[in-house]
Amino acid sequence: MQSKEQMQSDVLHGLRTLHEIHGESAVRRILAEFMKNWRPAQDIYRPSPQLQSRISDYERWHLAVNGVPHSERYKYTTENVGQLLEEITFLAFRSIVAETTIKAYESYSAQLDLVVSSTDFNWLTFFTFIGLDTSARTIVVEVKNTDGKVEDKQFGRFCGLLHMVFANSAQLGIIVSRNGATGFPVRGQKRRTKGLTAAQATQILFYAKTNKVVVVLDDADIRRLGEPGMLPLLLEAKIRTIEEWTGLPTKLDETGKEMNDLPVHLKKYELSD
Amino acid sequence: MALQMTTIAVSEFPWAREQQALRTLNRLAQFHRAWSSRLISGAIGCRSNEAMSLLWFLYNAKVVNPMLVIYHKHEDTNSSPPTLYRDFFQGPPLLPFTCDICGEVVTNEDELSYDLEFVFTDKVSFSI
Questions:
Q1: Which of A42, A131, A193, A267 could form a disulfide with A228 if both were Cys (CB 3.0 to 4.6 A apart)?
Q2: pLDDT tops 70 at residue A197
Q3: Do A13 and B48 count as a contact with CB atoms less than 8 A apart?
Q4: How far is B16 from chain A (nearest CA, A)?
Q5: A38 — contact with chain B (CB < 8 Å)?
Q6: Is some CB atom of chain B closer than 8 A to the CB atom of A17?
Q7: Which of B52, B91, B114 lies nearest to residue A13, judging by beta carbons?
Q8: How many CB contacts within 8 angstroms connect chain A with chain B?
């Protein structure tokens, strides 16, 4: 006799061993059936102390600059919140219990993106949990440090990148933006949003046309990334919402463009692993 | 209806290739209709994850069904009969529910413990 958590963990260990012996086809169907009614999110995502520490720094930054104009912030904090968000994002993907490769990719707009991929069993588990087809298993992440919401134009550019550059390898894009994106319902608002506008409209149309999903992690989501199981739970919920609306180790991208090594503020975590 | 006999080749499981392990598996198959990873690892001496991988392999071969055995923990005794028995893929029971054994309403996950058993649907013999 054992607890639910121990049982879930044992099942996943057994499936991992079967995956090693018999390959992916032997476990794919079992994993899909297993994920329907068991929710082993905490076996999939275990936030590291480094991540939790940086989320605390983010909360402190928030308190320090709350209500302070952008140009005055240097008086209250030395934290570079852009890099901080990138570090939190990077560490969050490092907290997925899988052997992932994370590369930095500089797109045409000189925007730093992270490209996360893996061939590991646990990565397959992660994708099955969030409810995506396991044929294209790269995730492209863009971190936006703006005081406003991500505009439709920026959102569309990211969709374009996902569609053109990662056409066959990625079906999930994630925008991390403190203030979310335009057109999305505001947390706590009293009136129910009925229509689709701006970036959210682009999100739904892009999914309907390409079957690729772009989700937005906002301030409230970022703060919760330190909780066990939270990243797959958030992604699964956001992906399901989109679906409901509509009823290499990657050194090179699909166009052959070389991806860069990670910048120093992210690379330090690779060295300490 | 009489059960069919199905022969399962386990040569890809390194720990099951030994003649002794194979004999043990065939012996277990004769006497136990429901297998758990603990039963196999205890009898063969393999690790729990290895035993679990064999059980899922048998599921893929369509000779077993995974069943969830659910126990309601009672303070006065360490061993109670199962309160529920169901298809593993249905997941854990929704709370609250009434325990068939003691009649109490189970409201907390911590009151439950589980076993995973794989019940044979065919007679099986093992080979390499």
A1: A42
A2: no
A3: yes
A4: 13
A5: yes
A6: yes
A7: B52
A8: 67
Percent of chain B with pLDDT over 70: 94
Burial class (CB in 10 A: 0-12, 13-18, 19+), A2: middle
Peptide bond into B96 cis (omega under 30): yes
Amino acid A248: pLDDT: 32
> Nearest C-alpha of chain A: how many angstroms from B33?
18
The one-character DSSP state at A79 is: -
Helix (H) or strand (E) run with residue B126 in it: strand B123-127
Backbone angles phi, psi at A124, to 5 degrees: -60, -40
Residues A163/A111, Cβ–Cβ less than 8 Å: no
Q: Are A51 and A95 in contact (CB under 8 A)?
A: yes
Q: Say if residues B8 and B127 touch (Cβ distance below 8 Å).
A: yes
Q: Is A264 on the interface with B (CB under 8 A)?
A: no
Count Cβ atoms within 10 A of the Cβ of residue A119 and give its class: 0-12 exposed, 13-18 middle, 19 or more buried: middle
pLDDT for A254 equals: 45
CA distance B55 to B124: 13
Could you report the per-residue pLDDT of A99-151, keeping only the tens digit for each?
999 999 876 665 668 999 998 999 999 999 999 988 889 999 999 888 888 88
Residue B28: what pLDDT? 96
Percent of chain A with pLDDT over 90: 53
Complex-level ipTM: 0.93
**How near does any CA of chain A get to the CA of B38, in Å?**
10
**SS3 labels along A11-41:** HHHHHHHHHHHHCCHHHHHHHHHHHHHCCCH
